[in-house]
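Justification of resources, computational component.

The compute hours requested in this renewal are based largely on the per-chain cost of generating structure records like the one below. Each record pairs the submitted sequence with a full structure-token output. That output is archived, and it is also reused by downstream analysis tasks.
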Amino acid sequence: MSETVTSPLSEVFKAEEKRLLNECIHCGFCLPACPTYMENGKEMDSPRGRLHLMGAAVEGRTNLDSAFEEHMKLCLVCRACETACPSGVQFGHLMETTRMALAESRTKGRFEQFLLGTVLPSHRWLSFVFTATRIIQILRLDKLSTILPFSLLVPEKLRKLQPSLPPVPLRRFGKSHDVHYPAVGQKRGTVTLFTGCVMDHLFPHVHAATARVLTWNGYDVTIPSDQTCCGALHAHAGEKSMTSFLADENISILDNYNSDYIVVNSAGCGAHLKSYLTYVDSGISVKIVDLSELLASIELKPPTVGPAGPVAYDEPCHLLHGQGISAEPKAILERIPGIDLVPLKDGDRCCGSAGSYSVTETEMSLNLLEAKMDDIDSSGAAIVVTANPGCQMQLNWGVKRRGLDVEVLHLAELLDRCFSPDPEYPSEPFARAG
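The structure output for this chain reads:
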């Protein structure tokens, strides 16, 4: 018998959410777009099925029990159903609202509270965690989890996930003070670069490449020192109060800079930052652009060299479905001289990363990753380009698991590589991967 959760969904589904819920016409167009439905064929793990469950809970025909929660948690919130939906149902918003009700109805574990409430919003805590992880990697203590008898002491999920973490860099990208990098040559405008939380610590080389590409193409770049987590992971977990708090924090910081644009190079962060009006009445959302959005709108300086080998582009869900950006990254890639851009089958299908999904729903995440690796292997690509750190981690993990001779790069990294042979190309900011 399933455990009943006390708080009814009707308390958080206001008139707007109920209106959005009723926009679903049950046509089924969402079914082939949904990764979990295509994987297991269960109607309750499709967008249509999940919306039916939400409606039943709002009307009091079902409880927010453990079975209900299981179907909601298995959703990637990739929002592919929103792109496929002819009625324009805002599924992502309804899912986040539903998870908020679930979060309010249960007692959170201490580790979850610590991670979401303490670690992610704090660069000090993140630095401590990643420094400790780096030491473990350097000493190769992480390998002990695969060797008897030590492996018996490590939970199976942790043993499975441990290889997915990339080498932790020596230091994060952000500084204790604001940093400004001037445009090279004729100035086109000014931007503030959003650096976030985990990406700031695990992918400083992507931020550095982004800043160099922007300054090379005429933008003054400012990196505020005290920016924090965007709150996307908190929103996906239903943590409304923390999501709103982080939105307040970032808006108060980003509003202090009179930049033309706030540039984001993480698709998940960008999609969430653009939704800040949902949480806080602020005008900064209109200034937020993805890196590819901005670069596609200008005439880029000609890259000096092209990539070595065929290139495939894998579309991050929160760039394609969350922000409606697809043509821009491809158009940028096509401008690179000598590029061999090869098609990637189901390049718009989720890789299984989805924020913390690979941790919470590891089995489904790996099933989706294996399907993605099949497509990458069949494409013949030597380089796979993406535009989201979570996807980059997941794809790198898949390449490692499969033993493929494929390099996974962020769009900024590939552009940086193609521009860098020019003797006048900026050397700062500098950050090396690994």
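Residues 20 and 89 are 6 Å apart (CA to CA). The two ends are 49 Å apart (CA to CA).
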